[in-house]
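User: My instructor asked us to take a sequence, write out its structure as tokens, and then describe one feature of it. I'm not sure where to start. Here is the sequence I was given:
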Amino acid sequence: MTHRRKSIAAGLPEISPARSVRWPFTLRQTGYLLAASDVAAILLSSLATGIGYHLLLLGHVGNVEHYLAFAAAQAGLLVPLIALRQGYGMDGLVPQRRQLGSLALSWAGTILFLLGIGFTLKISGAFSRGAVLSFAVVGLSLATLQRHVLTRLIKNAVARGQIRGPKVVLVCAGNVSAQAAGLRRHGYTLAGTVTLDYGMSVGEWAEGIMAALRGSDADEVLLDLPWSHWPMTKLLLAELRATPVPVNLLPDATAAEILRRPRQETGLGPTFELQRAPLSAGERAAKRALDVAVAGVALIAMAPLLAVVALAIRLDSPGPFLFLQNRNGFNGRPFRIFKFRSMRVMEDGGSVQQAQRGDPRVTRVGRWLRSLSIDELPQLLNVLRGDMSLIGPRPHAMAHDDQYTRLIGTYAFRHHVKPGITGWAQVNGFRGETPTVDLMERRIELDLWYIANWSFWLDLQILVRTALCLIKVRNVY
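Assistant: Let's start with the prediction itself. The structure tokens for your sequence are:
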């Protein structure tokens, strides 16, 4: 029986055959190093900002005890909060985006809490507001930087075998080599492997595992078994209760996909969100505030550039500098999208041909505009009007919407949020034409992932990644 599995070591470097000096602690103890590093960053940034602020503005050092007291309070709240969110566990070393996001949210929450306590108890007058605000910004920046650097050092040390990980007996129902290699990349030490044969009894399975445990000094037994065979796995666990070694179960491909989804507790037990509702009123307000702020500032800052582009389009080829086309927006509501004209045609209606690489319909200026995505800038007006968002699934021509709705069953779900100027699909390589249905399906999968996993921080990440993509100038058309 063959079961597809997602390697738990995706994205980590291979182990180097040459091992250098080991770190003086195990992989499970690296959480203490991360916590100590966070405390050091808090104390250092509090002293630096407090002393620096007072020296620059008042000409003296100020009360160092106040800086240390505020830093101690911040560390005393921040470190336990991150620990409760499992930010110092082994899992926190791999998904760095989630780790740094948790640090930022915890930092903001504890700072606001301390300011509220100081205001309520009327002790905030003892602290300089400028020094506290400087600490809030500098401290978070330093904490983020040191966490990023330290995490990379730990991951590299794990890859080189410098940090000893848990010693495990791996029990598999299929090919053991791929999962064993993945465990080694994550710093685990294999005390033994057991491959189960479904033609054997559960008692024989248990005997094989117990034989691998004898004299191995293993820290745990790690089961890599299909979840569809849970009744047999339960029988195996009953047989293994005689050993004091903990037994852990890895998720198979199906379970891993479900467990990554948002979870909430109900009276019937935990539920996993397979399809999220449209954004709540608060989430829509936060997203709209970001849209208006960024679009407004961008339009004002880039007004000279927009004027130059409009003039260049008019001089390069006959026709208007703006191209308007009907698109479907939130809940399928139609709107008119604004773009700088980059082609000699103005197609709109029941038949629209996608632009392709080397398309002769693209003008000389249009080719340059498309390579830099400058032709999309007028859509900032659509954002201010409320037709679009900065981030969301890219809107397609209505003719293409009709076509792909018939071909791709999940296509219409893209309209559960406002369309965007850029999106998760675009920063993951799906920018430009999608000439085949397979490519469009992959783009839709990324759009639907964004809808299911939306967060304010994800929007900010996509904005940053879009800016980085645009720095790498390339000729798309």
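For the description part of your assignment, you could build on this observation: The beta strands are 167-172, 189-195, 220-224, 247-249, 263-266, 269-272, 322-328, 334-340, 389-391, 420-422. Try explaining in your own words what that tells you about the chain.
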